[in-house]
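Sanity check record (used in CI):
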Amino acid sequence: MLNVKTFTFNPFQENTYLLYDETKEAIIIDPGCYEKEEKEALHQFIKENQLNPVQLLNTHCHIDHVLGNDYVKRTFNIPLLIHPKDDPVLRAISAYASNYGFPAFDECEADDYIEEGQEINFGKTTLQIRWVPGHSPGHVIFYHPETKTCIGGDTLFQGSIGRTDLPGGDHETLLEAIKTKMFSLPDDVKVYPGHGPTTSIGFEKINNPFVGERAQF
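Expected output for MBL fold metallo-hydrolase:
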């Protein structure tokens, strides 16, 4: 059975996700841990639950979602996987990290790339990869059909969507991607977003003011 542990890190209140199953193998998605205490909280949970992290994934590579990439890679000796279209986004961070208040940011390169149609496998768990651009060029989501779980990053929030005014963002692209790649999932799929509380596909289909049935186009 898939388990999802949520940590909320850094001043952006970013959601970091740790996924694991009964085999104790685990993956870490979007580690936003920057301060020592945040890194220790992630590490302590993994240690207490005797988990074995095997992969590090980024839904996308904006600074608040990758602050802990280097720490996680070094601590657990695991590879970082991202979509190739977000590689320039990741490489650009070191040039502006200090301006965002993160002078101790440690640069971290991707070890491999993931594309839509591929799968992420750990333990007895398989996640589907869907490319949902618009917030960033290479934004992906991870979907587990058996438990109807979606790790959505900064695409779809409870009552909102990801911002599109950052470099590489595009509002219409994001709207179309949500409608085709996310709203094609079952209504009872639980969405774990990059910020804020969980929501469901069915709720957002009706109520989301940007892409739902009640949206004003």
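The two ends are 40 Å apart (CA to CA). If this sentence no longer matches the regenerated tokens, the check is flagged for review.
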